[in-house]
Amino acid sequence: MHEYGKPNPAPQALDAVVIGEALIDIVTTSDGTNEHPGGSPANVAYGLARLGINTGLLTAIGDDPRGAALEQHLAGGGVKLMPGSRSLEKTSTAAATITPDGSASYAFDITWDPAPLDLSHTPPKVLHTGSIASSLAPGSKSVKAILQQLRDKCTITYDPNIRPDLLGSQAEERRNFEELVYLADVVKLSDEDAAWLYPHRDVEQAADHILGLGADLAVITRGSSGSLLAATSSRVHVPAVKTIVADTIGAGDSYMSALILGLLNRGANGYAPSVLEQLGRTAAAAAAITVSRPGANPPTAEELRSRLQ
User: Is residue 292 part of a domain?
Assistant: First the structure.
C-alpha cells in the first residue's frame, strides 16, 4: 500500500509524536460485544490530545470502515494522523474479554507495517513508542530506526506494554527491550511487565537495572499499589488514587499520557523528589479517572485539573 523508497516528510513540528498501533478493540462482557477504537499507542496519543498537547500519531490502519472509524475517533480528540498511516489492507483488531472484576484479556489479529517517516528536520519535544509496535516485525525495525534518528533531538519515552502471546522467547524480547531502553530517556512499564522481563528482580531492582541501561527515569506502575518513579539520584513511591473501577482498559495509557504532559511542563528542575512526586500524582489521577468509566476514555485537561485540585 505504501512505497518504501523515500520516507514521508513530517509537515510541522509537534509537541508530541506517538509511533505505534491503532486498532479496533472488540470488547466482550456479560452484557454483550461492542467495538471501540484502541491500541495502546493510539490511546496515548488520544490521551495527550485530550490534555491539550499538540500531538501526531504515526500508525498503520486499513482503508476500510474500521480504519475510517479510527481516523474519526482520533481526529475528534485532536490527534493529527501522520503521513502514510493509512497503509494496510485491513485494520487490525484486538478481542478483549472483560471479567467480573474488571480486568481484561486479549487476542490479537494485527499487522504492524508503518510507512517510513522523517522527523529529523521537525523533531517533536517528546517522541513516544512502545507496545506491539516496538516488538512486532516488520514494523519494529522502522520504530527503532526513528528512535535512533531522534535520540539526541528530543525526549524519548518508551512503554513496552508486554503482550506475551505476540512475542518470541523471553530472552529475545528482553534483548529487544534493552536495546530500546538504551535509546530512550524515560521508560514506563507495569509491575507485570517487569516481572515477565525480570522474574528474579523486584520492582526496585528492575528500576535500578533500567537506569543502569541508560534511562534517565524508570517508572513502574503497580495498579492499586501505586507507582515507583526512580531516577539516578532520587526515587519516590506514589500511591494510587482510590476510585470505583468500571474496568482497567486504557489505565496504563492514560497514566503514560499524563506522565508525558508532566515531562513537557516540568521545567528545569530535573528529577528532584518534588518533580517525581508531581509527575506521579498527575499520572495517577489520570489513570483513576479512566478506570472509573468503561473503555479507554482518558480525561480532558479540565477533568484532570479538577481531580488534582
Answer: yes
The answer to whether residue 2 is domain-embedded is no
Q: State the residue range of the domain holding 94.
A: 9-299
At 90-135, the pLDDT tens digits run 999 988 788 777 777 778 899 999 988 889 889 999 999 999 999 9
Residues 6+ apart with CB under 8 A from 72: none
- State how many domains the chain has: 1
**In one letter, which amino acid is 130?**
G
Q: What is the CATH number of the domain that holds 41?
A: 3.40.1190.20
pLDDT of residue 59: 97
Please compute, for residue 147, the number of CA atoms within 13 A of its CA located in the half-sphere on the CB side: 25
pLDDT in tens, 297-307: 899 999 999 99
Highest mean pLDDT among 70-74, 86-90, 243-247: 70-74
Look-up: residue for cell 517510513? 116
Position 12 pLDDT exceeds 70: no
Torsion of the alpha carbons at 293, 297, 301 and 302, rounded to the nearest 10: -40
Amino acid at 64: D
| Residue 269 located in a structural domain | yes
Asked, for residue 140, whether it belongs to a domain, the answer is yes
